[in-house]
């Protein structure tokens, strides 16, 4: 086990009905990623949220008053002057389910979990409700969808699994509850009950399909490894000395865990290690700020961690699977970053300051904030995103963003950007000047 040091890098209130709004042009100066010296704290840290040991944020007692607009200083970037960005909220939905706690997208469907016992299913792009998944348990804290299977963790420290079918209409068949009552009773009698269940709320889920593994992270400071074929717990990782808030797994099987201990840990899986195949490869410090959420780019090249100080720290993957180099921090949020999503070259962040930010990652690794989405009246607990592609002639790209907040409102945003040709723009200006 080794500890990685920071390396200096080279370089209107909710509406019950659908609310349609026109596009809004991004006019603010863009905020770019910072390149900091490795051992100094980020300057002018925004105010913290108090760290809770029971749950990442108190989901029951929160004031829903609209926060004041944050006064942020932006650094102009000449590099993206030819990038024109527009964004708009295309719909806003308020149900009687309480706070929105989790969201996941797959196959043109969006799944949302809340304080209630219902997972709602929405069909894109029209965003109409097309189904529900109900259980006796309440509070859907985490959702994960993979290969037509839906995994949902609840406040009773259990995971429910459904299988999605496409037989003319979309159907979901309940497959299992993890752990099931029978296996838990047998383990309790055998004195192995601590190996088969979590003793704190499950905060995050991750799936490694190639290895047939489901990971669950919990506020009980552990990560459990479940075999998907029979839903049995095959390993318990004593991951952190503080609650584990988020986990992600890369395609090469490397597992990343984030905790209130202000670190991100990297775990390798060794198939020849007996009962404990996961070993700690490296520990990444996050500038003394608890890490609440993680996101990984599709190619696994960049790892993002959202912290309570309002910064998004990111690490760049090296030549080896568990080798990471600190890349910098993305400033802008004034309160804790509670959720992250990565799609194409976009990074979406949701914060306790009630805003979402959209970042674009350039080929040289520089990140630039191209949009700030405002409209929620409470902390944004979860975000999900998927790309939209325009025609080749228009040179237009973008993404759709789903954001769920503790104000109980689910919003869908469309973000588009068009890269304009500087030469043609210059020629047009000269033409009009001559005329």
Write the layout of secondary structure elements.
Layout: E1 2-3, E2 24-25, E3 31-32, E4 83-94, E5 100-106, E6 109-114, E7 118-123, E8 128-134, E9 140-146, E10 149-154, E11 159-167, E12 169-178, H1 181-189, E13 202-208, E14 213-218, E15 222-227, E16 232-238, E17 244-249, E18 255-259, E19 263-269, E20 278-285, E21 291-296, E22 302-307, E23 312-317, E24 324-330, E25 337-343, E26 346-351, E27 355-361, E28 367-374, E29 380-389, E30 396-405, E31 409-419, H2 422-434
Parallel strand pairs: 1-20
Antiparallel strand pairs: 2-4, 3-28, 4-31, 5-6, 6-7, 7-8, 9-10, 10-11, 11-12, 13-14, 14-15, 15-16, 17-18, 18-19, 19-20, 21-22, 22-23, 23-24, 25-26, 26-27, 27-28, 29-30, 30-31
Structural class: mainly beta
Identify the overall geometry. Answer: globular
**Helical element count?**
2
- Range of helix content: under 10%
Strand content: over 45%
List how many beta strands DSSP finds.
31
N- to C-terminal separation?
Answer: 70 Å
Q: How big is the Rg?
A: 22 Å
Low-confidence stretches: 5-30, 36-78, 188-193, 424-435
Largest sheet: 5 strands, mixed
Strand order of the largest sheet: 1-20-19-18-17
What's the rounded overall pLDDT mean?
Answer: 79
Précis, in short:
With 435 residues, this protein is mainly β. It contains two helices and 31 strands. A hairpin with a 2-residue loop joins strand 25 (337-343) and strand 26.
List keywords for this structure.
435 residues; mainly beta; 2 helices; 31 strands; 49% strand
Account of the protein in words:
This protein has 435 residues and is mainly β. It contains 2 helices and 31 strands. It has helices spanning 181-189, 422-434; strands spanning 2-3, 24-25, 31-32, 83-94, 100-106, 109-114, 118-123, 128-134, 140-146, 149-154, 159-167, 169-178, 202-208, 213-218, 222-227, 232-238, 244-249, 255-259, 263-269, 278-285, 291-296, 302-307, 312-317, 324-330, 337-343, 346-351, 355-361, 367-374, 380-389, 396-405, 409-419. The strands form 7 sheets. It has a 5-stranded mixed sheet, with no helix packed on it. Strands 2-4-31-30-29 form a 5-stranded antiparallel sheet, with no helix packed on it. A hairpin with a 2-residue loop joins strand 25 (337-343) and strand 26 (346-351). The longest helix has 13 residues, at 422-434. It starts with a strand and ends with a helix. Mean pLDDT is 79; it is low at 5-30, 36-78, 188-193 and 424-435.
């Amino acid at each position: 086990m080794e500890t990685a040091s920071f390396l200096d890098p080279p370089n209107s209130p909710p509406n019950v009905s659908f609310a349609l709004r026109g596009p809004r042009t991004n006019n603010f100066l863009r905020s770019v990623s910072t390149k900091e010296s490795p051992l100094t704290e980020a300057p002018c840290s925004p105010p913290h949220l108090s760290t809770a040991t029971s749950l990442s944020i108190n989901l029951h007692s929160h004031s829903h008053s609209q926060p004041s607009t944050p006064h942020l200083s932006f650094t102009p970037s000449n590099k993206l002057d030819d990038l024109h960005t527009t964004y708009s909220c295309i719909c806003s939905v308020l149900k009687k389910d309480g706070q929105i706690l989790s969201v996941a997208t797959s196959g043109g469907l969006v799944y949302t979990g809340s304080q209630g016992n219902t997972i709602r299913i929405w069909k894109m792009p029209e965003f109409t409700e097309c189904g529900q998944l109900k259980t006796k348990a309440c509070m859907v804290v985490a959702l994960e969808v993979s290969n037509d299977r839906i995994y949902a963790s609840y406040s009773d420290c259990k995971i429910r699994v459904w299988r999605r079918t496409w037989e003319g209409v979309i159907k979901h068949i309940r497959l299992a509850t993890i752990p099931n009552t029978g296996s838990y009773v047998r383990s309790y009698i055998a004195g192995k009950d601590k190996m088969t269940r979590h003793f704190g709320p499950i905060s995050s889920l991750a799936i490694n399909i190639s290895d047939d593994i489901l990971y669950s992270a919990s506020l009980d400071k552990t990560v459990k490894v479940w075999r998907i074929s029979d839903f049995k717990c095959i390993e318990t990782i004593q991951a952190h000395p503080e609650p584990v808030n988020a986990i992600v797994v890369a395609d090469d099987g490397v597992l990343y865990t984030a905790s209130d201990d202000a670190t991100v840990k990297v775990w390798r899986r060794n198939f020849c290690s007996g009962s404990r195949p996961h070993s700690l490869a490296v520990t990444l410090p996050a500038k003394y700020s608890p890490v609440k959420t993680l996101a990984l780019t599709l190619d696994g090249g960049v790892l993002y961690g959202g912290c309570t100080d309002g910064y998004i720290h990111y690490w760049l993957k090296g030549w080896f699977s568990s080798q990471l180099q600190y890349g910098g921090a993305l400033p802008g949020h004034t309160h804790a970053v509670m959720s992250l999503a990565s799609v194409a070259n976009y990074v979406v962040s949701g914060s306790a300051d009630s805003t979402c930010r959209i970042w674009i990652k350039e080929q040289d690794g520089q990140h630039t904030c191209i949009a700030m989405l405002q409209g929620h009246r409470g902390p944004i607990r979860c975000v999900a995103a998927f790309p939209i592609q325009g025609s080749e002639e228009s040179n237009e790209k973008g993404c759709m963003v789903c954001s769920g907040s503790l104000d109980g409102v689910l919003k869908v945003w469309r973000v588009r950007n068009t890269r304009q040709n500087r030469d043609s723009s210059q020629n047009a200006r000269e033409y009009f000047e001559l005329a």
